[in-house]
Amino acid sequence: MNISSLKTKLLYFLLAGLIPATSLSQEIDPALEILIQKALEKNHGLNVNQLEGEQARIDQKQAKAVFLPEITLNGSYTRLNDDITFDEDTQNLLMSTQKLLIKEAAGLPFNADFPENIPLQPASNLQDKNILKSSVDLDWVLFSGFEATNALKAAKHKEASLNFVGEAEKDKIVLNLIETYDKLALVNASQEVLAASEDHLKDQERFVKKAKENGLATPISRKKIELAQQQLEAKQLEFRQNKRLLIEVLHQITGENREILRSLSPQLNAITFTGNSAEKRAEVLALEEAEKAAIYKSKMEKSNFIPKLALKGHYEFLEDDLSLLDPQWYVGVGIKWNVFDGGKSKLKSRKSQLEAQKYQEKIKEAEEMISLSIVKAEMSYEAALQNTRIAQKEIELAEATFEMLKKQHRNDLASISEVLDGLRDLESANFKLQESYFDQSKAGTSLMHAKGILNY
């Protein structure tokens, strides 16, 4: 997935008019995009996944390297206890043969005496005792019996599987980050609700103070307002502590500076999700690629019985110390055929086949769980929408009731307790509305994730 922008883009999904679009009514928040990037960069699990992916790419290179020629330079010095020579009878035979050849060349009869003035060459050593060698060897696999080819394919599918595992892990990180970010927005919204309640209390405090000066209010009314103010301060303290805790959580997830996190002002807004499109989840894709990797691994192990063809070459740079039997160079082609290995390859192949079957079962299980999660997410989203509508109606009723009680109190038709109860009801309704926005956002994000269309 490509990192784009924050929450709107996290929930936004569109395929150029080919399928129903997912529409969201939420303004872009650039801060969330930055936090997502930092969270993905910081997460240790993702870093480990990337390292495992790099290992899979190295496995591919190793499989390809099987078909590259291996060139080895060799050098050695050996000293024997003595020269290796022919035995005495063979040396005498060689000397006699040399004399016959010389007499023949001189035109002498073979039974004539050998001239004393002609020197004879002693027989060469089979191997001098001082041996200095320098050579190069070439080993080149021409055909691996499809073992390297299947190993390469297995490594490619393993890498793809790890990539999809990483995508699934990213989804979890982003979902957790969005929820934490929305909780911070909920705290901000709740603090705004408390600020509105504080203004209402100050307004009532001024009215009661003036009424008391005119003998129209009792000290009890003032004490009730003071109690309400203390209760309000306790709520404000609770939300400040919640905000501090959320800042610490965001710092742990993203590694972002705390001062920057404190300066964030996320807002909760109602989100409208439409569209029935769905895509295959990364979890399923990861299992499918793992199954393919296991299948090719099984083929690789089974191909152990196929003959393998290789070329071998050798060249000696130094000829002086070669024995009479050593060639200066040679080239050859050989076949290696593993006819019977005690059934090891067959058992390994069968084990990999069973591994592939395990992945098939996991795929079926994952698809069933995803289908169920989509149904549950749709139900949660529908419930969140309904709760938002209910909360909006409760706000209307609470506002109207509070305004009526204020007017009645000013006309001495309602007590200060009734006014404070009305204010608490209005405050509670506002809290409930903000919580419904939070639940709607969470349910919408979860639905997008369940359908595999969570983009970021």
UniProtKB/TrEMBL annotation:
It holds the Pfam family OEP. The keyword Transmembrane helix does not apply. This is Transporter. The lineage of its organism: Bacteria, Pseudomonadati, Bacteroidota, Flavobacteriia, Flavobacteriales. Keywords: Cell outer membrane, Coiled coil, Membrane, Signal, Transmembrane, Transmembrane beta strand, Transport. The keyword Glycosyltransferase does not apply. Residues 1-25 form the signal peptide. Belongs to the outer membrane factor (OMF) (TC 1.B.17) family. GO terms for molecular function: efflux transmembrane transporter activity; porin activity. It is found in: Cell outer membrane. Residues 194-240, 349-408 form a coiled coil. Its main location: membrane. One of its GO terms (cellular component) is cell outer membrane.
